[in-house]
Amino acid sequence: MLFRHVRSPRVVGAAAALRWVGLGASALLTATAPLVIPSAAPVATADDCPDAEVVFARGTDEPAGMGRVGDALVDSLRKQASGLNIRSYAVDYKATITQRHGGDGAKDAINHIKSTAASCPNTKIVLGGYSQGASVVNIVAGFSGINWGSPLPPEYVKNIAAVATFGNQADRTDGAPPTQNSPLSAKAIDLCNPADPICHAGSGNSWSGHTQGYVPEYTDEAAAFVTSRLLAGSTQTLPGYGSQTPGYGPQTGYGALPGPASTYGTQPGPVPAYGPQSG
User: Fold this and answer.
1) Which of 58, 109, 229, 255 is at a distance of 20 to 30 A from 92, taking alpha carbons?
2) For residues 260 and 46, what is the distance between their CA atoms, to the nearest angstrom?
3) What is the maximum alpha-carbon separation in the chain?
4) pTM score, whole prediction
């Protein structure tokens, strides 16, 4: 199940009604007392190994590094899982407007995951991406039928604790989720701002919904999802939630995104599109 979260479109930045939707799953997060999770947090064995590592692919035209969304995700994660040592790794690829290097990014991410798994087998890896970086993650995780790259080999799935994508273009076709089944689907959350024309077809979209619409609301929510997975079996508390782990209620079938499907209108910037990869 790939868990999908789309906010109500009436207030883009409001932390009001939340809707979690998955491939046959939905969930309600409640904001009341702190969450208490039993036992001790997992710790990597080697002294120089972090408890968790965020491997993140930035968006189009962002300078090398984690990008604005990736940095915000890591910052929020370190606050919410404050007892864990969390390291970050920026996927090395050319995030150009031409969108020709997603396969290169997927290769780099996979190679890094393999390296971390070999040197720090107890480190929990969090895979994430924003915009074009979400396309890189789609390749790595096998979330869609993109043929420009190979997914993560199945023997490394156990090393991935969570996957978080933001502004994912693969969601946009008629409001449908990525269709390819993946062993990582149950560990994944996909976040779309309903004002973002990249992931949501419909009226009321604006380019700022994509470029400015994910920090901090969506990055905080993704961090809460990731934290709940990293701290499974821990005595640490997760502020802002009730007595239940942010989880998933009765299965209800996948909900369509609000608004009718439509073609891209004129945006004040380039619209990402998949293109042939460079190797």
Assistant:
1) 229
2) 51
3) 53
4) 0.70
Helix and strand numbers, DSSP H then E, in the chain: 5, 10
What are the beta bridge partners of residue 178?
A: none
The active-site residue out of 210, 220, 228, 234 is: 210
Three-state secondary-structure class, residue 162: strand
Confirm if 241 and 225 have CB atoms less than 8 A apart: no
Residues 104 and 120 sit within 8 Å (Cβ to Cβ)? no
At 10 the pLDDT is 31
Is 51 a catalytic site residue?
no
Q: Where are the domains of the chain?
A: 2-238
In CATH terms, the fold of domain 2-238 is: Rossmann fold (3.40.50)
Q: Residues 76, 131, 144, 228: which is the catalytic one?
A: 131
Q: pLDDT of 72-94, one tens digit each?
A: 999 999 999 999 999 999 999 99
Segments of the chain with pLDDT less than 70: 1-46, 145-147, 172-181, 233-279
Residue by residue, DSSP assigns 113-153 as HHHHHHH-TTPEEEEEEETHHHHHHHHHHT-S---SSPPPP
Q: What is the pLDDT of residue 235?
A: 58
Assess whether 200 carries a catalytic annotation: no
Q: Which is nearest to 210 in space by CA: 197, 201, 219?
A: 197
Please list, residue by residue across 28-66, b when 16 or more beta carbons sit within 10 angstroms of its beta carbon and e when fewer do.
ebeeeeebebeeebbebeeeebbbbbbbbbbbbebeeeb
pLDDT of the residue at 131: 96
